[in-house]
Description:
Keywords: Glycoprotein, Membrane, Transmembrane, Transmembrane helix. This protein is mostly helical. 60% of the residues lie in helices and 5% in strands. It has 25 helices and 8 strands. The protein is extended.
Amino acid sequence: MGKKARVEDGQALTGGEDGDKPKYGTPKKYDPTFKGPIGNRSCTDVICCLLFIAFLVGMGVVGYFAYRDGDPLSLVYPTDSRGQICGVSEAVKDKPYLMFFDLLSCVASPYTTLLEFKCPTTQICVSACPNETFAPYTQLFVGALLPAFVEWDKFICDYDFNPQTEYLTGSYQGTDGLAAIFNDQKCASYYLKSTEYASRCLPSFLVDSASDVASAFSSEDTITSSNGESFNSSTAQELFSNAASLILTFTSLVEVLFEDVVASWYLIVGGLGIAMLLSLLFIILMRWLAGIIIWLTLLGLHVLLGLGLYSCWQQYTSLAGMDGADAAITFTTDLSSYLRLQQTWLIIGIILAVLLVILLLTTLCLCNRIRVAISLIKEGSRAVGKMMSTLIWPIFPYILQFGFFAIWATIAVFLATSHQATYTVSMDDNDTVAPADNDTCDHTTFATDYPNTTAVCTFQSYALKDYVLYLQIYNLFGLFWLVNFAIALGQVTLAGAFASYYWAFTKPQDIPAFPLFKSFYRAIRYHLGSIAFGSLIIALIQIIRTMLEYVEAKLKGKENQVVKYVLKCLKCCFWCLEKFMRFLNKNAYILIAVYGENFCTSAKNAFFLLLRNIVRVAVINKLTDFLIFLGELFIVGAVAVTSFFYFTNQITWVSAYITVPTLNYYWVPIFIITIGTYFIAKCFFSVYDMAVDTLFLCFLEDLERHDGSPEKPYYMSKELMGIVGKKNKFDKDD
């Protein structure tokens, strides 16, 4: 074996004569320095690596500002219109409950209320929920109650707002001023007898089984809100109960579903374990079943088309001589009438005949390439079988992606809750001590800074700062980049491991020890820049697609047909571009793992290599996709159907040993097991797909670089050499 080329750990694959790189636009000549794909590398795309690190630092800065200004507790605990958390913030520490000024606005959008647990009305923190129903707006403007008889002490108003003082001597004098108190939502135009639920004041008849509508107000009473909407006891139940029941039903449903998961968790784990075993078994069996499945499928297609053609001929001849059968085809809504026409069956028969001829000629012309594809698919199964650790590897990129998503979500939540209250100066025209009217001010120090002024620092608005939007875009782009980085890292690592399998001359003796770990080390040590470069391209495309979706959503109902058409075209183009770049990146990562070159060089080399073998690429990709689809369909379907029969007690012999727990909804564990099985199958078959793609590119390189002589032998299997008509020209004693 002394003359045979071997893969030696620590050796590198260069290219061309005397170390010059070959031109990938044309088939390469043999490289006499070829020893294997591993070792003697240098860092690639260093600038992009530094850019990636700088971007991560920027993410950290964004996270700092988000943490400093944000308050996620406002999403969990009741928060008033000024962003103060009831019972937590200093100003409202003694007011733990949230009061809504107009509950009808909550009813109008129950799903928003459910998702955000808030509604578009003024909300204040109160020390206790109201224990009676009171409708001042109705009394004053419907019942014509004189202001002199108004029960001012029953009003529930915004902080530091005294309705009686404002009406008598303030800026809300007169009838119009009194109406403005309610229209400006300075005070609640009505409130109902309420009970605390989740620290929020809700009508008692909704959350307290001991209360009913009659306890809130009598049937003669009609309440009118400041926006003109009215309701009484006969309509209140319908108005409020639908929204409240949605919220309460959702809460109870979550509790019931959680109980079912807890009761059947061990069966769910067992089902997912079976899915893992089935996925592994299917991949291993591919080395024997791949050819059978593919050839039987092709034979079945030929037979089906042939039977269809024969059936059309039978129908055509049977209609001969029948009245009206030879009539021309005309449009009609009676579809069955077409089946009584000879011309219909003639057209269908011609279509089937053309398809049969095309399929037959394609099969004959591509027969050799189909055999190559089958052999590579089998070889992929062997490679996975020799390196079982690769099946577990996808868990690591998934954990990375989950971690990156968690970081993005955390920063996004903190940014989304970094609202800031704005206060402005409200003053008399003759006051010259305080700043100008409507200037911003600090309400915590205003009184001490301007002790001799009659002006006050009043709350104006509660909103996000303008720059938060840009930080959210930066954070979203970071999510895209980091997630694609994790995917690329997983692909480079797997490609390196499977490449070391292919370039082992004698398998498994020449396969390096711990190939997956060594491939991961090489990816981290030398190629982080290239991985960051490739993932950056995908992230840029994704952020552009996201912006196009945002623009389309903002212009919905307003755009003209030209703008709508342009947006659709742009979305389609960038979708296609992303698909193409993902395909190109994947093959570029394979060559990065094999040769250790930078991203641009590897992408160019991969593109031209695939272009020179475009028919082989199409055949193997489609056959591999077909087998993976069958595998996923079989595994998910088998596990889902078995789970259904088990949890419905239709597999009695299993239930005798493993008792089916009593569940509220038996479909809960079935659904979880089915979804989990799908992701497990995707995880396992993604490894298998990467194995086939890596071996395929190595096979193409092997064909172009070597001629089978002792100095430049082929590394492919003997089965592949037999299919492509190649062989190694060694002496028998070698």
